[in-house]
Amino acid sequence: MEFVVRAVDVGSGNTKYVVNTDGSEIRCASFPSIAYPSASETQAWAASERRKTLSIPIGNLFYEVGPDVHLVADSVRATQLHDDYTDSAEYMALLRGSLHLMKQPRIDLLVVGLPVALLHLKKASLEKAMVGTHDVGSGKTVTVAKALAVAQPQGALVHYASVHKKMATIGNEQSLIIDPGSRTFDWLVARGMRQVQKQSHSFNRGMSDVLRLIAAEITKDIGSPYRDMDAIDLALRTGKQLVLFQKPYDIKRFMPMAEAVAHQAVSTMRQYIESPQSLQNIILVGGGAFLFKKAVKAGFPSHRIHEVKEPMFANVRGFQLAGQNYARTVISATRPEREAGAGGEE
Q1: Rounded mean pLDDT of the chain?
Q2: Torsion sign, CA atoms 206, 67, 27, 97
Q3: Which of 150, 188, 190, 337 could be 200's S-S partner, Cβ–Cβ 3.0 to 4.6 Å?
Q4: Which CATH class is domain 5-153+314-341?
Q5: Domain residues of the chain, as ranges?
């Protein structure tokens, strides 16, 4: 019987997950990392009003998560902006929302990610929390037999090596993977696929800092509080203007401030890199890659900066590949013994 391997990356901005695999194709989806608590399960809506959300029971509360969670009437964006977010009810709600949307009643191996700075602190506890039977709402459960937590940028390295057909050669190369996300700026230096711990790190300097700074400037300019971070993010990514008070509002004048945040992050990272001239691959991924690209190039002017398609999904696609390899080489070696001990039952 084939192992079911799936991957989830619960980020501070978006929760990414693998929907299914078809040969070498790994299909992914995402929804905002927002979980709104309620004392009762979300009511059923008429078909014309129904939103794409799930009501996930955690403890004595229900958390609404999913693609249309922004339609929930609440002015507070409840993101996970703290180091203990993996221990929170909100994190578990986002994780279980992903499990529900995967439509797999049992997962033999679930691969999840952590920021580099938290990997050794949270790896064991997160893997333990992932294993077991999860109530994913609507009367459904998902059983996870085994879990594996890895550094988020390490997934991107696996994905990059697979896409560029370098799995056979990257073991002899030194790589730097840079992952600017919503909350954290992560980077990982690797020799082959092995992390160089003292040169790898993460700290709180991501897209959320940029969005908050621009929102504060808009607030000062218009004379009233402005908190629509999603609209600012969309304007930065597309180059389209905001619309305020029914009129176009150009945020280009705030770009030097946004770029300053990116340069600060890259400058801090450079202090950890002992021999940048020895790096053979510099790979830029993550939801903030578009904004940090200029700063990364300025920090490494003699290097070519590699990017991948759909950089937001680079980590979770790499998690999936790493999990499939782990299942083939490690778990499958013990499966015959486990099945024999169980009397041959599935």
Answers
A1: 88
A2: positive
A3: 188
A4: alpha beta
A5: 5-153+314-341
